C-alpha cells in the first residue's frame, strides 16, 4: 500500500469540497474493497477522504410509499431492517447472499455500488488490463475467463460486476441519489453502471467530484413473489457464477408484472425489458419462463472457459422464476435449491 | 493544492477503548486496525491470516459489531470501542464461547480460533442465527484450514443454548 494523506469530511458539502481540492483523492466509507485494492497497489489514491461519519445512515419512508436509504447504511443493517424484510425481501435476500457477515457489517450501500470487478487480471498489476491501464490490453479474453461475462462484453473487457445487492436494486427499479459540485441529481440504478465498451476503466456514470447520498426504492416491493438465486463454486462467501433476481406480480396464474435481473454475467446488472414484456399477461409456466430466459440471454457470447455459463444462466432464470411464481423464494441459509 | 503521493503525512492521534482500557496512539493513516492491535498495542491474539478480508482470522468487535480488522483503517475508528479475544474473559472466567470451544475441541492448530470466537460473539449479539444451517451461513466469513467446522458449529450451538 502506498503512502497517502487522510482527511475526515464533516458533511456532504465538505466531502465535495475536499474532492475538488484534491484531484488524486478517493472517498472511503466501509473500505472493504478499496483497502483491499490499495494493498494490491491497484488503487493508489494520494488521499483518502473519510466519509464514514457523514449523516447518511437513515432508512426513511418516502411520501409515495417507497424507501430512501442513506448511502452509509451498512449492508447488514439494510438487509435486516424491518421495512426491507417486509416490503423488499428480494433486496434483503440478495444482500445476505453476498460477502460475509463481517464484510456486510462494514460495507456501505453506496460503497457496494462502487465496488470494482474481481477479475484476477484487474487485481494483478503485473498483467495487462484495460481497466487498470487503458490501452494495455485485456488478459482475460485469452486467459482464464471461467468467471467472466457472457453479455455486453467488448473487445476491451469481459469483466463482471460482482455485486449481489445491485442485482436486486436493478430488478426493483431503484434510483441513485447523487450530490456534486453542480448540485444534486438522481439516476436509475440500471443507468448507473456502464458496459465496458472501449472505456472499461470507467465503471459508473458517477461524475468526478460527485458522491452517492442515497438509494431510493419505489413503492412496488414484490414481497410475495420473488426469489434471489445465486450459483457459485462454494455454498457461501463466494462471488456468483450466475445470479438471478426475479420479482413477479400475479393475478391468479397470470403474470401482471415481471422483473428479472442477472448478476455475474455482465459489467452491470443485466435486465431485458423485452423479456419482461414477454412475461406480462402470460401464464406463469415453465415454457414462458424459458422464453424469457432466451430473450434475456439473446446475444450471449462465451469465452474459452465460460461457455457453461450460458446454459447455467438459462436454467437459473427458469428456476428462479418458478420459485418466485410459487412464492417459495430461495433461502440463503438452507442451501437446497427448491 | 497538489497531493504528493510519496510525502509522509503527519501521524494522526487517535483514541481507542480496547478491551475496556483507553489507549492513545499516533499512527500513520495506512495503519490497519489489525496492525495497530498487534504491532502498537501488543495484542497479538488477533491473527493476520490473508490480510484481505477473505479468511476472518482478524475478526474483532468494533462498537459491538464483528468486522475484519485487516480491512479497517485505525484512524477511521478514532473513538471506537474495540473488543479482541483478549477482552472476552471476565474476572478470570472464560467467555461461554471460549469454554464451549474447549468443550467441543473446536480447533486443531488454533490459528483461526480468536477470529472464530470473536465472530461467534458478534453472531450471538446479532441474534439472526437460530439453527445449525444459519450458524454455518453466518460464520462463512471465518475459514478453518484444519476443517474444524462441525465442532465449531457445535460449540456455538452450546453457547447459544440451542440444539
TrEMBL record, chain A:
GO molecular function terms attached to this record: FAD binding; oxidoreductase activity
Coiled coil: none
InterPro entries with a match to the protein in the record: CO_DH_flav_C, CO_DH_flav_C_dom_sf, Diverse_Substr_Oxidored, FAD-bd_PCMH, FAD-bd_PCMH-like_sf, FAD-bd_PCMH_sub1, FAD-bd_PCMH_sub2, Mopterin_DH_FAD-bd
PROSITE patterns per UniProt: FAD_PCMH (PS51387)
Domain FAD-binding PCMH-type as annotated: residue spans: 1-222
Keyword list, A-Z: FAD, Flavoprotein
Alphabetized SMART domains for the sequence: CO_deh_flav_C
Official protein name in the record: FAD-binding molybdopterin dehydrogenase
Automatic annotation (TrEMBL), chain B:
Name of the protein this chain belongs to: (2Fe-2S)-binding protein
Pfam families (UniProt xref): Fer2 (PF00111), Fer2_2 (PF01799)
Source organism of this protein record: Bradyrhizobium centrolobii
Residue intervals of the 2Fe-2S ferredoxin-type domain: 12-88
Classification via InterPro entries: 2Fe-2S-bd, 2Fe-2S-bd_dom_sf, 2Fe-2S_ferredoxin-like_sf, 2Fe-2S_ferredoxin-type, 2Fe2S_fd_BS, Aldehyde_Oxdr_Iron-Sulfur, Beta-grasp_dom_sf
PANTHER family hit by this protein: OXIDOREDUCTASE WITH IRON-SULFUR SUBUNIT (PTHR45331:SF2), OXIDOREDUCTASE, IRON-SULPHUR BINDING SUBUNIT-RELATED-RELATED (PTHR45331)
Xref: PROSITE patterns: 2FE2S_FER_1 (PS00197), 2FE2S_FER_2 (PS51085)
Entry keyword set: 2Fe-2S, Iron, Iron-sulfur, Metal-binding, Oxidoreductase
Gene3D superfamilies: 3.10.20.30, [2Fe-2S]-binding domain (1.10.150.120)
Amino acid at each position: 500500500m502506498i503512502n497517502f494523506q487522510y482527511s475526515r469530511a464533516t458533511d456532504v458539502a465538505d466531502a465535495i469540497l475536499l474532492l475538488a481540492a484534491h484531484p488524486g483523492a478517493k472517498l472511503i466509507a466501509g473500505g472493504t474493497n478499496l483497502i483491499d485494492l490499495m494493498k494490491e497497489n491497484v488503487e493508489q489514491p494520494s488521499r483518502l477522504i473519510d466519509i464514514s461519519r457523514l449523516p447518511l445512515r437513515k432508512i426513511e419512508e418516502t411520501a409515495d410509499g417507497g424507501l430512501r436509504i442513506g448511502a452509509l447504511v451498512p449492508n447488514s443493517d439494510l438487509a435486516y431492517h424491518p421495512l426491507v424484510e417486509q416490503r423488499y425481501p428480494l433486496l434483503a435476500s440478495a444482500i445476505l447472499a453476498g460477502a460475509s457477515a463481517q464484510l456486510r457489517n462494514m460495507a456501505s450501500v453506496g460503497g457496494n455500488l462502487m465496488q470494482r470487478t474481481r477479475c484476477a487480471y484487474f487485481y494483478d498489476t503485473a498483467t495487462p488490463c484495460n481497466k487498470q491501464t487503458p490501452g494495455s490490453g485485456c488478459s482475460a479474453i485469452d486467459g482464464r475467463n471461467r468467471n467472466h461475462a457472457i453479455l455486453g462484453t467488448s473487445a476491451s473487457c469481459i469483466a463482471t460486476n460482482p455485486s449481489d445487492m445491485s442485482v436486486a436494486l436493478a430488478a426493483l427499479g431503484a434510483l441513485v441519489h447523487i450530490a456534486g459540485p453542480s448540485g444534486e441529481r438522481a439516476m436509475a440504478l440500471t443507468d448507473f453502471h456502464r458496459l465496458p465498451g472501449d472505456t472499461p476503466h470507467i465503471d459508473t456514470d458517477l461524475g468526478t467530484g460527485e458522491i452517492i447520498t442515497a438509494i431510493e426504492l419505489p413503492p412496488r416491493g414484490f414481497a410475495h413473489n420473488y426469489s434471489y438465486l445465486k450459483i457459485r463454486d462454494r455454498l457461501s462467501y463466494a462471488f456468483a457464477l450466475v445470479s438471478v433476481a426475479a420479482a413477479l406480480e400475479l393475478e391468479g396464474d397470470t403474470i401482471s408484472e415481471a422483473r428479472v435481473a442477472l448478476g455475474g454475467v455482465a459489467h452491470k446488472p443485466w435486465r431485458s425489458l423485452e423479456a419482461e414484456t414477454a412475461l406480462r399477461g402470460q401464464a406463469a409456466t415453465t415454457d414462458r419462463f424459458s422464453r424469457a430466459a432466451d430473450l434475456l440471454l439473446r446475444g450471449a457470447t462465451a469465452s474459452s472457459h465460460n461457455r457453461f455459463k450460458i446454459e447455467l444462466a438459462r436454467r437459473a432464470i427458469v428456476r428462479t422464476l418458478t420459485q418466485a411464481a410459487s412464492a417459495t423464494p430461495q433461502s440463503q441459509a438452507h442451501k437446497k435449491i427448491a | 493544492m497538489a497531493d504528493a503521493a510519496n510525502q509522509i503525512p503527519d501521524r494522526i492521534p487517535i483514541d481507542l477503548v480496547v478491551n475496556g482500557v483507553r489507549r492513545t496512539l499516533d499512527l500513520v493513516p495506512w495503519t490497519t486496525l489489525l496492525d495497530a492491535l498487534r504491532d502498537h498495542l501488543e495484542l497479538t491474539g488477533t491473527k493476520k491470516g490473508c490480510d484481505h478480508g477473505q479468511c476472518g482470522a482478524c475478526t474483532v468487535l468494533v462498537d459491538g459489531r464483528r468486522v475484519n480488522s485487516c480491512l479497517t483503517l485505525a484512524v477511521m475508528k478514532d473513538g471506537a470501542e474495540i473488543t479482541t479475544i483478549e477482552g472476552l474473559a471476565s474476572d478470570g472466567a472464560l467467555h461461554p464461547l471460549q469454554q464451549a470451544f474447549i468443550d467441543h475441541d473446536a480447533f486443531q492448530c488454533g490459528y483461526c480460533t480468536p477470529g472464530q470466537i470473536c465472530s461467534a460473539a458478534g453472531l450471538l449479539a446479532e441474534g439472526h442465527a437460530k439453527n445449525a444451517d444459519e450458524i454455518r451461513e453466518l460464520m462463512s466469513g471465518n475459514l478453518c484450514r484444519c476443517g474444524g467446522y462441525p465442532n465449531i458449529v457445535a460449540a456455538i450451538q452450546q453457547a447459544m443454548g440451542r440444539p
